[in-house]
Structure formats: structure tokens, C-alpha cells
Amino acid sequence: MNILITGGNGQVGFELQRQFAPFGTILAPTRQELDLTNAEAVDVYLEKHQPDLILNAAAYTAVDKAESEPEQAKRLNAELPAQLAGYAAKKGISLVHYSTDYVYPGNGETPWQEDSPTSPLSVYGQTKLEGDQGIIESGASHLIFRTSWVYAARGSNFMKTMLRLGRERDALNIVNDQIGAPTTARLIAQITALSFTVHGSRLSIHIPQGIYHLAPRGETSWHGFASEIFSQARKAGEALTITPESTAGIPTAEYPTPAQRPLNSRMALGKLESALGITMPTWKSQLALTLKEHLSN
């Protein structure tokens, strides 16, 4: 199989390469090899390489910058997924796409279900929702995994930023009224692989196609996430100048950003757990594994 992974050098894309390497030839073009912002270039690449499976981990993820660059966000978050889905539908192959909790309105305290009403608060969220809709409307065989607060041992992310600041500062103010579940890129890739069955030399999706929430169990705020990072890192012997106790929680209103963030990013996991027959791990256990990997490098 030829397995195309867009965004292959990103956090999720890198982990997908590790998970899917045994199943076929991985096509993970760099930006120099394939300009995903160029629709014509994408068409040419697809026809030349004829992928048998597409894992779309590419996205415009600069949430605040998207407010001033809506066309760039729309190309990568909405038009590209629809384009890839159109190819998948034409060729009779499957597409896996990664979406976000930002498609929901972010109010209340009840976890969102996959069929909950959507109402994005930002350009980023709106363009990601349009991407989801384009895939569904294409008729392609697909899985859409909506996830939240993605981080990894590599790349730029909240965990690594906190570790850096934890060595430089002795106090921090961090938002404490946005609630969700920090999700590791490794977990996203592992669950993606679990969604497939090997038939001879082919991979096929073995759960009903559609939208699934993919996140670990439990919930926390960004302040709670940071505090746990500092606590676990200090226990691992990291020389941090900060302590969990010197990390103060503040409301979102005191940390204004160009893009509005959802306060409620809780997502129900029952549909995914039932489909795969699994229980998702907790966010704290996933943080411990990711910290260990990062600190051992």
C-alpha cells in the first residue's frame, strides 16, 4: 500500500508515520515536495503517486493568526480536506481526517456528543467545521477524529513551552476556566491504527465511518495541565525554578486573544470506546509517558 500522510512532519503526522510504517510505503511529502496550499499541485501529486489510503494530518493551526489570514486557514482546513476526500471517493479509498473541539460553541459544562450542534467561535473553528462537512458530503469512506489540546514530545506545544518557562520563571498566570483534555499525538496515531484491520496487503476501516471524539479520559484546565506538568517534571528530577503552587489561575477575560476560545472543550468518548471495545487512558498517564520520552531525549 501507498499511505499518504499529509502534515507528516507535524506532531500527529510524525506519530502516524511511526504507527503505519509496517503497513506499506509511507508518502509524507515535505512542504518543499508538495505545497498543500496549491490545489493544482495536490491534484498532480495524487495522480502521480496514487495513494491507497490518505491520513490528513495537515492543518492551519495558528488559531489567533487565522483571524487575520482567513483565506490561508480556509485553504488548509476546509478546501484541502474536501479535495482529498473527492480523490478518495473517486478512487474508492479511505480518508482519515483530524478535526477539533473548536467546532462546538464552547458553552456549558456538559461533554459534547459527536452529533451536538456546532457553532464555532473563531475562523479556525469555522474552517475546520467546513473541512468536516466537505468530507462527509464527498461520499468518501472516512473517519473524522475530533480531538483537543494536542501535544507531543517533539514540536512546539503547551507542554514544552511550560517546561521552558518553568526553568526561566518562578511564577506564572495561566487560564483556569477553559476545560478540556490534553491529548497526545501518540495516542491519536495509536487509535487511528486500531481503527483499521489488515486484509492481506491491504488496510480497511473496521469501525463505522463517521465522526468520533478522540481524547483521553478526565478533564482539566490549562492551569491544571501546567501544574501537573510542573509536578511530574520535578518528580522526574527536572531543575525547575517554578512550583505548582506558584502557578496562579486566571479567567480567560484577563488573557484576551484575537480568537475566542471555547470554555467547554469536554468531549464524550463513549462512541469511540464502544466502536473499538477499549477504555481510553487518562490524560495524566499520557502526560507521564510523553514527559518521560521528552526528558530522555
TrEMBL record:
<comment type="similarity">
    <text>Belongs to the dTDP-4-dehydrorhamnose reductase family.</text>
</comment>
<dbReference type="GO" id="GO:0008831">
    <property type="term" value="F:dTDP-4-dehydrorhamnose reductase activity"/>
</dbReference>
<dbReference type="Pfam" id="PF04321">
    <property type="entry name" value="RmlD_sub_bind"/>
</dbReference>
<comment type="pathway">
    <text>Carbohydrate biosynthesis; dTDP-L-rhamnose biosynthesis.</text>
</comment>
<protein>
    <recommendedName>
        <fullName>dTDP-4-dehydrorhamnose reductase</fullName>
        <ecNumber>1.1.1.133</ecNumber>
    </recommendedName>
</protein>
<dbReference type="InterPro" id="IPR036291">
    <property type="entry name" value="NAD(P)-bd_dom_sf"/>
</dbReference>
<dbReference type="GO" id="GO:0019305">
    <property type="term" value="P:dTDP-rhamnose biosynthetic process"/>
</dbReference>
<dbReference type="InterPro" id="IPR029903">
    <property type="entry name" value="RmlD-like-bd"/>
</dbReference>
<dbReference type="GO" id="GO:0009243">
    <property type="term" value="P:O antigen biosynthetic process"/>
</dbReference>
<comment type="function">
    <text>Catalyzes the reduction of dTDP-6-deoxy-L-lyxo-4-hexulose to yield dTDP-L-rhamnose.</text>
</comment>
<keyword id="KW-0521">NADP</keyword>
<feature type="domain" description="RmlD-like substrate binding">
    <location>
        <begin position="1"/>
        <end position="293"/>
    </location>
</feature>
<dbReference type="GO" id="GO:0005829">
    <property type="term" value="C:cytosol"/>
</dbReference>
<dbReference type="InterPro" id="IPR005913">
    <property type="entry name" value="dTDP_dehydrorham_reduct"/>
</dbReference>
<keyword id="KW-0560">Oxidoreductase</keyword>
